[in-house]
Specification:
Mean pLDDT: 80
Low-confidence stretches: 1-34
Helix content: 25-40%
Order of helices and strands: EEEEEEHEEHHEH
Number of strands: 9
Number of domains: 2
Strand content: 25-35%
Structural class: alpha+beta
Largest sheet: 4 strands, antiparallel
């Protein structure tokens, strides 16, 4: 995998993202080359949805948000609903888990998302349905050691 360095806007210096397990290639091409740990990283969206709105939110998430997330390199692992019932007057928590294959793919997806205004617009359009939301990243306990190999 090749990860490109980014050029600072205020100077001509190249800055790296300091990815674990990478080495700088000699030459002036401005690219990183090297081994990236092969470990699944999980991106977890946890969304508390207003009473009665979870089915609507899930439908929009799967049909409007998910396609662009896939284009950014994420793979949808699962969508869970808690409690596992539609109860009048009660919030549901929707937990969507995405995966990427290691830090290189995570960084690539993150950079694509930062340069694409659509995810932010979509989340803003969903605010009337949402009480609160969080996004976290995780890995299997067995993979953390190799993900920290700097």
């Amino acid at each position: 995998m090749v990860v490109y360095l980014t050029k600072r806007t205020m100077s001509s210096r190249w800055v790296s993202s300091r990815l674990p397990g990478t080495v700088v290639r000699s030459g002036d091409t401005g690219t990183y080359r090297g081994h990236m740990p092969d470990a699944t990283i999980y991106i977890v969206d946890q969304v508390v949805v207003r009473p009665g709105r979870a089915p609507e939110f899930i439908d929009a998430y799967l049909h409007e948000y998910a396609p662009s997330a896939r284009e950014r390199g994420l793979t949808l692992d699962r969508v869970l609903v808690s409690p596992p019932a539609w109860i009048d007057g009660e919030n549901n928590t929707v937990t969507a888990t995405w995966t990427v294959s290691g830090p290189g793919d995570w960084w690539a997806a993150a950079v694509r998302g930062r340069h694409d205004p659509e995810p932010s617009r979509w989340w803003t359009s969903m605010e009337p349905l949402i009480v609160e939301r969080t996004r976290s990243m995780a890995a299997s306990a067995d993979d953390v050691e190799k993900l920290n190999d700097v």
